[in-house]
Amino acid sequence: MEDVDDDERGSAGGGFAARLRQETAEAHGAAESAPFMAELLSGQLAPEALTTFLAQVHQLYAVLEPAVDALRHDAVVALFADDDLRRLPAVSADLQAHLGAGWREHLVPLPATEAYAARLRQVAAWPAGLVAHHYLRYLGDLSGGQVVRRLLARAYGWPEEQLRSWDFPAVPSPKRYRDRYRAALDAAPWDEAERDRVVEEARRGYRLNEELFADLGRQLPAWRR
Q1: pLDDT at 27 (0 to 100)
Q2: Is residue 176 part of a domain?
Q3: How many domains is the chain built from?
């Protein structure tokens, strides 16, 4: 999920990216306040908590990334369809590192994952809606992912090579990349009605993410060490 850091606090202006951030803040905050990630990052959970989480994320990117590829011909989607952001290979590598060759057997969707993936399929032919979900997932990992990776490595003693899901080796400056991403959002040729729809779709995405964390949270008693 997207963290708020100092350089981003200063970037709030009158563009659409700032509006999108401001008008999804409440939904974003609700998703981020779920206890699952707090307990995971503090080292309180068994390793199965991480692999279950990554298995859910894998199933989301398995829908999102092919959908983005299919719409690369769209002028707006093309602004965001950057292979340097691609997460599916990294998530797959992490799952294999933690679970071994049979890791695909663990790709069992939780109910919230099924609902989230279904929504991604529904918006796959709507370029602006696809961008809304792309923004939620990738800009979030670029903002907070490096911290997540360090905390997991510290809490569980895992080498960072087993936590590639939050590593963007082809993005040397996440801040500059985020700035360019937000500039592309500002430049997207959407009218006000379409921008309203994008904001609402991003809110919906955060709610779906909140529901996923809630599903994961129901398993916390079994994972606590």
Answers
A1: 87
A2: yes
A3: 1
What mean pLDDT comes out for the span 203-218? 96
217, 35 Cβ separation under 8 angstroms: yes
Q: Dump pLDDT digits (tens) for 27-49.
A: 888 877 889 999 999 999 999 99
Domain CATH for 189: 1.20.910.10
Task: State how far the Cα of 37 lies from the Cα of 206, in Å rounded to an integer.
Answer: 15
Question: What is the model's pTM?
Answer: 0.92
| Continuous H helices in 71-125 | 77-80, 88-99, 111-122
Residue 31: CA count within 13 A, CB half-sphere: 23
**Nearest residue to 30 via CA among 68, 63, 1:** 1
Identify the residue whose tokens are 């995971």: 40
- Residue 45 backbone phi and psi in degrees, to 5: -115, 155
Sign of the alpha-carbon dihedral angle for 5, 9, 14, 19? positive
Beta bridge partners of residue 224, listed in sequence order: 45
In a domain, 216, yes or no: yes
144 lies in some domain: yes
d(CA 77, CA 68): 7
pLDDT digits (tens, 9 = 90+) for 116-131: 999 999 999 999 999 9
Instruction: Write down the pLDDT at residue 13.
Output: 56
- Neighbouring CB atoms inside 10 A of 115's CB total 15
Task: Provide the domain limits for residue 162.
Answer: 20-223
- Distance of alpha carbon 57 from alpha carbon 40, whole angstroms: 15
Residue pair 111/215 in contact by the 8 Å Cβ criterion = yes
